[in-house]
Structure of Probable nicotinate-nucleotide adenylyltransferase:
Amino acid sequence: MKRIGILGGTFDPPHIGHLIIAEEVRETLNLEEVWFIPSYEPPHKQKAHVNSETRVEMVERAISGNPHFRISTIEVNRLGKSYTFDTMKALTDENPDVQFYFIIGADMVEYLPYWNHIDDLLNLVMFVGVKRRGYAFKTDYPILEVDVPLIELSSTDIRQRALKNKSIKYMVNSGVEAYLKEKHLYEDR
Ligand SMILES: Nc1ncnc2c1ncn2[C@@H]1O[C@H](COP(=O)(O)OP(=O)(O)OP(=O)(O)O)[C@@H](O)[C@H]1O
Ligand SMILES: O=C(O)c1ccc[n+]([C@@H]2O[C@H](COP(=O)([O-])O)[C@@H](O)[C@H]2O)c1
């Protein structure tokens, strides 16, 4: 079986926390690749601040340069609410030779009981949790924990900094930083 990691997210915008957890989990679990899947509409929180085409462009820029990282547009192509069960059902049907490892931060570990079709989803993927400041890593589900450096960054922080015209250098990669500036994303308009 091939071993592939999945990092689903809103990526509004993608930041170095996403890249570091994906790379750490890839290396620790010896995964061939990690696929980044931007959601069209997050199932559990408010709509993203920028449209899905823009978030896809940002993820492409964020992952460029890492030959193990790919993007899948399965959720933005499907439209509607991006339930992970629907996505992973389609991906496991299309790729019967792959064991998928679905990477989540500790905020999502706590939220797992509320995911759509969580029991069926647990039969499709192995969840991999990483720690995140402010969230206890507590769950009754059988998930793998991978130790990663604690990155105190969120997309919310980046949006707030952009709004206040504060530097986001090194918090997002340079391609994403240039794109945010060029398109004036998240700025006060
Ligand atoms: N700094 C981080 N440390 C650990 N996990 C993270 C970190 N940032 C994001 N993640 C995880 O990456 C996945 C995608 O996150 P998402 O795109 O929603 O970013 P976010 O920073 O949580 O966004 P927002 O602040 O807008 O809610 C989620 O599983 C989330 O838990
Ligand atoms: O399917 C669900 O019910 C579900 C509920 C909460 C989160 N998720 C997925 O978890 C991933 C991280 O979510 P987010 O909003 O932090 O980007 C993303 O792929 C979401 O679609 C999925």
In short: Residues 2-151 form a domain with the Rossmann fold fold (CATH 3.40.50.620).
